[in-house]
Each structure stands twice: as C-alpha cells, then as structure tokens.
Amino acid sequence: MNRANRTERVMAAVVGLLALLTGVGALALHHRQVDRPVLDPVVLDWVRRHPTPVRVGLVVLGLLAVFLGLRWAWRAARPEAHPDLVVDERLVITAKALAAAVRSDAEQVGGVTGAKVWVVGTPALRLRLTLRRGADVRAVWRELDDRVLARARRALGVTSLPAAVRLDLGAEERERVR
Fold it and tell me: Which keywords accompany this UniProt record (predicted)?
C-alpha cells in the first residue's frame, strides 16, 4: 500500500551493518592491542610496495559508491507508478479512470466533503477523505466499505481490494465577529 521501500530499507540496513561491523572491529582491535596501529604493518608495507593497484582499487570502490548512491537517490526520488489494470486482452482500465470513479463514489458518502484517490500496486487503492466537522466516523467507514469499495471490487471482478484510507477532519468554520 505504501510506496515500495524494500530496496531502500535493505540498502540502508546493509550500509548500516557494514559501518557497525567496521566500528566494532576497530574497537575490538584497539581494545585488544592498545600499543598497535589499526592497520597492520605488513599491510602498510604491501600498500607502499604496490601503490598503483591500491590507488586503482580505491578509485574503483569510490566510483562504485558514487554510482550506487546516485542510483539509490534516483530510485527514492522518482515518481510513484500508477499502473493501469488489464482485465483481459481487450479491456484495460486506466488508473485515472478507476481513481475518478472511486473518488466520485467516495464523495457521495455522508459526512465526506472531499476525496482524493490513487491507484497503486496491482491493484490497490489509497484514499484520502476529508470529513465534515461532526461527521460520524464509524458510519463513514461502514458506508465506504459497504458501498464504495464493494462496488470497486465488483467492477474489477476481484474478491479482495486492498485500500489504505486516511481520514482528515474538516476545519472548524470560523465565526465572524460583527
């Protein structure tokens, strides 16, 4: 229902885990041998004898990090997809048409003053309803499920249609002082 953030979460977890392991390793090495440098003298000697492969390796790692970071940022910033629904090879319901139909039905629910609807997933709905002040939330919820979402399920020919619903309470009308 929410934007698919699985890749971002996995990448953040991997980067965090690598940073944690590096920090724990450095602390363990420092704690175990206080008078010894973090990098082993044998490694430092090898690096001094082979500067070109080390520099090339570090540049490649840096470029890989930049590429992965840019790809990660691009994926996180790109617009969310609103897929059309293919009922059969001759019938395609556009995401805009389905969203407009559900929005029209949702605006007819008693107590609702405005509705916004998005089609996400395969298929799933995201609804944002603005309620009139003093509206009975349970009655709105019941009518939304029994009438609006049931009609959408029947129209699509599915038994289950996931929907994330956000209810916003309307602002109190201001009284003018005379």
Answer: Membrane, Transmembrane, Transmembrane helix
21: phi > 0 → left, psi -120 to 50 → alpha, else beta; which? alpha
What whole-number distance in Å separates Cα of residue 103 and Cα of residue 9? 32
Handedness of CA 43, 49, 53, 57 (dihedral sign): positive
Determine the Cα–Cα distance for residues 178 and 176; give it in Å rounded to an integer.
6
Q: Which two tokens stand for residue 96?
A: 């805009």
Provide the whole-model pTM: 0.58
130 in Cβ contact with 170 (< 8 Å): yes
Can you list the domains of the chain with their CATH numbers? 6-77 (no CATH), 85-169 (3.30.360.10)
Most distant CA pair in the chain: distance in Å? Answer: 88
pLDDT tens, N- to C-terminus, the chain (178 residues):
455 566 777 878 888 899 899 888 877 776 766 566 667 788 889 889 999 999 999 999 999 989 988 888 887 777 777 788 787 788 888 889 999 999 999 999 999 999 999 998 778 899 999 999 888 999 999 999 999 999 999 988 888 889 999 999 876 666 777 7
SS3 percent helix, strand, coil of the chain, rounded to 5, is 55, 15, 30
